Amino acid sequence: MSDSSAVVQLALRAALSGWAVSEVRGNQARVLPAPDLDTLSAHLAAVDPAWSLTWACESAAPFVVRARLTLGGAVREGLSSAQRLEDAKKLALADVFRYFGVYSALEAPWVDYDPEEGANTSELGAGDFGAEAQTARPVTPLPSAPKDPQMESARAHIDTLMEQLRQGGKGGEAIKLLMRGYGETVEESRAIYKELQALQRR
Question: Residue 2's pLDDT band (boundaries 50, 70, 90)?
């Protein structure tokens, strides 16, 4: 493995610090290790300031998302699906990470799930990353930003409204409004929610 490849893998390994829901059964959800989208930019910019990431939504019921990552001169694509858009994006990006040789060997655990709050991953530990990534020198991950209860609540409301729009046949239009994310602040999330409400009233 070249030094540049090892550095890229270290950055991806550090970013693989979150969880995404891959399946829901009643009040239980199966979760998989996935990139933390809130800290992703800081990790990748450290090894390639010109990195880029694009998303494309192939379907809305369930969400099927394609992620395309350009990093360190390489371009990789990943595809995955989930009931919620945010989870589909994370899983698609985790699929991209596998093409860079970074993945988790953990068995996917089942956790408590609430439709409003999402999956309870508070008791899950850090991932056991793939052998190829483990051969590189250790890396100290950047600290994760503390979760904002208001932001979590805003995301839950947006997800609920997205489900209503999908059922009303407006899922495709709604996805276009949400592909860039839920917003970086509560105010941005509220603005996105209002746009979705306006779409629902049409």
Answer: low
Domain match, 95 and 116 both: yes
**Plot region of 142 (φ>0 → left; ψ -120 to 50 → alpha; else → beta):** beta
- Count of residues in the chain: 202
Domain that holds residue 45: 3-144
Structure tokens at 198: 């306006």
Number of domains in the chain: 2
The answer to whether residues 92 and 190 belong to one domain is no
Rg (CA), the chain: 17
What are the helix (H) ranges across the chain? 3-15, 40-45, 85-99, 131-134, 149-167, 171-178, 186-201
**70 and 128 belong to one structural domain:** yes
Q: How many other C-beta atoms can be found within 10 angstroms of the C-beta atom of residue 143?
A: 8
Same-domain pairing of 140 and 150: no
Lowest mean pLDDT among 86-90, 101-105, 107-111: 101-105
pTM over 0.85: no
